[in-house]
Amino acid sequence: MNSLFSYPALFFFFFFLVHSIRSYFFMDLCSFFLSFSGGQPHKRRRTSEPIEIEDRLESLICRVGEKSTSSLESNLEGLAGVLEADLPNYKNKILRILCAVARLLPEKLTVYTTLVGLLNARNYNFGGEFVEAMIRQLKETLKNNLYNEAVYLVRFLSDLVNCHVIAAPSMVAMFENFISVTQEEDVPQVRSDWFVYVVLSCLPWVGKELYEKKDVEMDRLLSQIEGYLKRRVKTHVPMLQVWTAEKPHPQEEYLDCLWAQIQKLKKDRWQERHILRPYIAFDSVLCEALQHNLPPFTPPGHMPDAQYPMPRVIFRMFDYTDAPEGPVMPGSHSVERFVIEENLHCIIKTHWKERKTCAAQLLSYPGKNKIPLNYHIVEVIFGELFQLPSPPHIDVMYTTLLIELCKLQPGSLPQVLAQATEMLYMRLDTMNTTCIDRLINWFSHHLSNFQFRWSWDDWSDCLTVDLEKPKPKFVKEVLEKSMRLSYHQRIVDIVPPTFSALIPAEPLFIYKYEDESASSLPGYAVTVTVGNAIKNRASNEEILTILKEVPNPNQEDDDDEGESFNPLKIEVFLQTLLHLAAKSFSHSFSALGKFHEILKTLTDSDEGKLHILKVVYEVWRNHPQMIAVLVDKMIRTQVVDCAAVANWLFSQDMAHEFTRLFIWEILHSTIRKMNKHVQKIQKELEEAKDKLEKQQHKRVSLFMDKNSEDEEGQLEEQIERLQEKVESAQSEQKNLFLVIFQRFIMLLTEHLVRCETGSVDISTPWYKNCIERLQQIFLMHHVTIQQYMGTLENLLFTAELDHHILAVYQQFCALQL
To answer: Which spans of this chain does the record mark as coiled coil (predicted)?
Structure first.
């Protein structure tokens, strides 16, 4: 079978042969073998044969265009013949497969449009049915908010104009309907953006053909687009840029960049040199085919629950000067740059779950000899990794993909990747803090797969500047993350001694009651008793009785014994417990689980919750990962709540750690837990409502007994309880965001007032970090925050707020316009 797939032309011959004689030989052969096992050949023949043929058709269609010893043109011609012969019996299956590949394999767009063109030339009715099926699918994808897939479908339809399947005037009419959306009132800007983007992104493929047939209409269309682009609001752009500096490469908004590329394409008389166009070889056949008119297509109206794609900023890292040898990299405003990047994005989108396949597909990109492919691949991958608010795929996918690419191209790609890393390091001062976080995670993970080898001495410039500046902070955080993937001594050994100031501390437990020198500390005697009690497996009640002996520093000696917050009691118990469980994560988790009741008793007040977090930090301050997982565990077990964690992270006690990465990992993890909690209860409520609705429907259509009525009453009570839980959880969620934003405003306002009073520049490394962390909160949790925008605007982000802080909120609001 493998040899057949290696020679597609030969395979098509055998396929025809089998196809023509299967009713005689194949079925008789099946009957012969089945007769020995007592099977029923006639029944099996009817069910297995169509399925086998359908699977084979799917395989043929999906694999056309892959590497082959035969030419693409001969493969397409052979496949068209196979499909034409099967249309009488498998037309619906063929339609479904072709519609699916148009949506899911956009990197082979022109291969499939050519195939459809050849089928249309042989069978006009099939061509019409395919166009109608594509329009139905386009409507369905828009209805389901699958906007990326809808882009591919429209692009496919537009390329069918080149294959003489669709008439050019009807395609122009569809584009005009799309652009009419820009005239709609009271709709989000992102809706109009999407329809404009669809039209512009099709023009590299079909612009030349449409201009030759409908130049006046196309000029009018482009004029309308230009007018729209001039009046667009672009307040959101700074929030989405990877770098604040415009040099060496401008960070352009995606529609502005695409518009400049299309303008240059038009100036070049729509001549484009990079798109694979196999239909040119069949022009004599295709031009004789009858064309179809697209049915009138009106863009669906705006719905409140529509989720349009967010705006983007085009990531630029390289230009022609960075790839001095070999082919020249197309300029940033050449349409070839858009086509190459679009195709590479499509390959990643199709194969991202299989890193080996994805890497192989990227490196076998058609036309790779005409471009510096490695530079394009690295730029596209980093562009996705740094995309704001979030990458298209999980961060670790990009790490594994780059590792796989280095393995497949060991002689060239690692050098390009090293060059890119060096460039990113040099531009850290103007890089967005969120992107620096992702760079830290990627680089440390990447190093761990290559024995942590790196030319650290090349980065020695970071040792001569303030350690709070981006470069030394970056190196320190990379070493911190690397230690998580290795061990402390390994990190000490891999970096030069001159970097000692940036090497993380050894992650040891700090127990203040460790030895007898601590005997003068308050509570020391009780720690010994508590430690022995834990070792001897004393009950919770016995330990709580021992803890009553701990004096309360918040009470005067002559005060009556009360239930006021006792910080020393928390310190004595938690320090002792965590010290005994310090051996590993699992020991610590087990200890927290076993003494959960005591911890809940000690933290029944807000002060208690804050203090328990303070103690966790004190004992594990040299082990940020342990702090993160213990805080996570305490939230899960409800020892502390999310608002307490937020207040602790913004407290004065943690001010010196404010710009550390682990602080923000804890905060984002806390917010995600809160969001998941709300979503879980909302889901339970929806399920209960659905169940009640079905029950009521039964009551209307059927006679119900008393048990059914009781069940309905129980469901109503359950819904009432869940409704209260949802309202309570949403109130807690809103409070969490209010706490976070209020603390940000207080910190930033204090800094701005201090700078103004002292007549100093506000743009310190701390300020850049803080203001970009505020942006990060908005971007990473934008879906949830949108629910509370009214409250935020009324209580916190008012007109009186300093414009530096208010600008962040306005940028966020502009994303949804």
So the answer is: 671-739
